[in-house]
Write a structure and sequence with these properties.
Largest sheet: 7 strands, parallel
Number of domains: 2
Strand order of the largest sheet: 3-2-1-4-5-6-7
Strand content: 15-25%
CATH topology of the largest domain: Rossmann fold
Radius of gyration: 20 Å
Length: 340
């Protein structure tokens, strides 16, 4: 049986986005009778560790130097390696390639020193960029290569969403597995500032965040329920009239689900994806987190329209649904396994 390694970032500060998109690819690879092993510090985020474990995937602790990677991958007997990291030293990539192991690297615009036989940039309009490639590399770019997990695919509507009239709209808000930048309280303040009714479920991965969210003063007919990280994310999104999330890797899952997506740019490396998504008209821009923290009024104006206009919600949902077909992981797996 062939064996593929996945070297990805994860941690309380880094979040779980790298792990989640790698799991989408891993599910596709497992369907093709290939064994997997993740190399990462999954134990630092127990929820992420559990997501790997329930899929029957072994985990090795992260290593950092080029020599350590070459030694570990040789000991594991890997036939290919997937990299998804912002933190690795650039020397790791050529060392692994020089050892004769086929490689695929998942990137987001800037390669950050990554080089591989296949470079995958699954971001909106990435196909319009033409970066210089490392020798011997090919690049797969654009939303046709978005990798979506089984849980999401199982809830994808067969048709584009249509407008639905509701009494009090339901909101679901989450900001990655750790909400590393504390977006939840600021978004709830902006929701409250709309002054209109809503019922919101907000994911808060820690007690401190949950307490800050609970402390936000709400207006009449506004309700916020705080929950911890959930395995029912896709179902929550499908049930919601509006989903608010960070403008990261989860954006593509929301579009695949036909969600009305309101995006918050929580960190600098999300700026390009955030601006492109808003310009394309497939998601609403709630704003940059630092701006929300200072003054929620601009975000509140956007949110008020989304909460009160079912036609606009349906327009956004249908536009996103059409752009992410859910088959990207098959295309990426074809490219990876074609290297072996």
């Amino acid at each position: 049986m062939k064996r593929v390694g996945v070297r990805c970032d994860v941690g309380p500060g880094r979040g779980i986005g790298h792990v989640m998109r790698c799991l989408a690819l891993a599910e596709e690879i497992q369907r093709r009778d290939v064994e997997l092993v993740f190399v990462c510090d999954a134990h630092t985020v127990p929820w992420a560790a559990e997501q790997i474990r329930v899929r029957g995937i072994a985990v090795e602790s992260a290593v950092w130097t080029a020599a350590e990677h070459v030694e570990l991958f040789a000991r594991l007997g890997l036939d290919a390696v997937v990299f998804d990291s912002y933190d690795l030293d650039a020397s790791v990539y050529p060392a692994v390639r020089a050892a004769g192991i086929p490689t695929l690297a998942i990137v987001d615009g800037d390669f950050r020193g990554a080089e591989a036989d296949v470079l995958v940039d699954q971001n909106l309009a990435a196909e319009l960029d033409h970066p210089s490639l490392p020798p011997g590399s090919i690049r797969l770019a654009g939303l046709q290569y978005v990798m979506i997990r089984d849980e999401i695919l199982a809830h994808r509507p067969s048709e584009p969403p249509a407008p639905r009239q509701v009494g009090v709209p339901r909101v679901f808000a989450f900001f990655g597995g750790t909400d590393a930048f504390g977006a939840g309280p600021s978004v709830v303040r902006a929701l409250s500032a709309t002054g209109v009714p809503f019922q919101a479920t907000v994911v808060a991965p820690g007690a401190h965040l949950a307490a800050r969210i609970a402390a936000v003063e709400l207006r009449p007919q506004q309700r916020v329920d705080v929950i911890g990280p959930t395995d029912r994310l896709a179902a929550e999104v499908r049930d919601a009239d509006l989903t608010i999330s960070a403008s990261g890797t989860s954006t593509w899952e929301l579009l695949c689900l036909g969600a009305t997506a309101g995006l918050v740019c929580v960190v600098d490396n999300q700026v390009m994806g955030y601006e492109r998504a808003i310009a394309t008209g497939m998601a609403a821009g709630i704003g940059v987190l630092s701006d929300l923290e200072e003054d929620p009024s601009a975000a509140a104006a956007v949110l008020k329209r989304l909460l009160t206009d079912p036609v606009e919600r349906a327009r956004l949902a249908a536009a996103g649904w059409a752009l992410v077909d859910g088959n990207g992981r098959q295309r990426v797996a074809d490219a990876l396994l074609g290297l072996i």
